[in-house]
Design goal:
Strand content: 5-15%
Number of domains: 2
Helix content: 25-40%
Strand order of the largest sheet: 1-2
Number of helices: 4
Radius of gyration: 29 Å
Number of strands: 2
Distance between the termini: 61 Å
Shape: extended
Low-confidence stretches: 136-142
Length: 167
């Protein structure tokens, strides 16, 4: 197939399609020919991913949104997208088009202070609601005794013996 009648500026070019077409799986079922070409549907998928719009907003020039989504989802479940990506990466790597240098900047890998497990001042809670299979029970810490038949502390206890961790 030479080119598609309706093309957008971000659609696949003929050269790009010539590279991608051999990687696309061929349908195995006999019967009625498809209403839309794989190229149209792939351009519709690329449009939706690029724009970030809902599937229902895919332009009709790419096929019905159900057909575009259906192809995307079938190929996602069967691993076709991963195979296409790995083959394209292997081809680009063989041609020397990929540089596999990795650089991690420490400013990007920072975590928030609460992610470090630091104890929060002023956030001590003594009452927690525990949901059991039978009913909701309010458990309060009271001198290490059981409340309503349940232990007042749930394992693991904290370093501070007067305080319990509630999970």
């Amino acid at each position: 197939m030479a080119s598609v009648a309706v093309t957008g500026r971000a659609d696949l070019t003929d050269a790009q399609w010539a590279i991608l077409e051999p990687l696309v799986p061929v349908g195995k079922k006999p019967g009625r020919p498809p209403q839309w070409t794989k190229r149209q549907l792939i351009d519709g998928i690329r449009w939706r991913v690029r724009v970030g719009a809902p599937w229902r907003d895919v332009p009709a020039a790419y096929g019905s949104w159900q057909a575009v989504y259906g192809l995307f989802r079938r190929w996602q479940r069967s691993g076709v997208w991963a195979r296409i990506l790995s083959r394209l990466q292997a081809r680009a790597d063989a041609e020397g088009l990929i540089t596999w240098d990795v650089s991690v900047d420490s400013t990007v890998a920072r975590a928030h202070q609460h992610a470090a497990g630091a104890r929060k001042k002023g956030m001590r809670r003594t009452n927690r609601r525990v949901v059991s299979a039978t009913r909701n029970r309010l458990i309060t810490r009271s001198d290490g005794h059981e409340v309503d038949g349940l232990p007042s502390c749930i394992w693991p206890p904290s370093r501070d013996r007067n305080r319990c961790l509630w999970w």
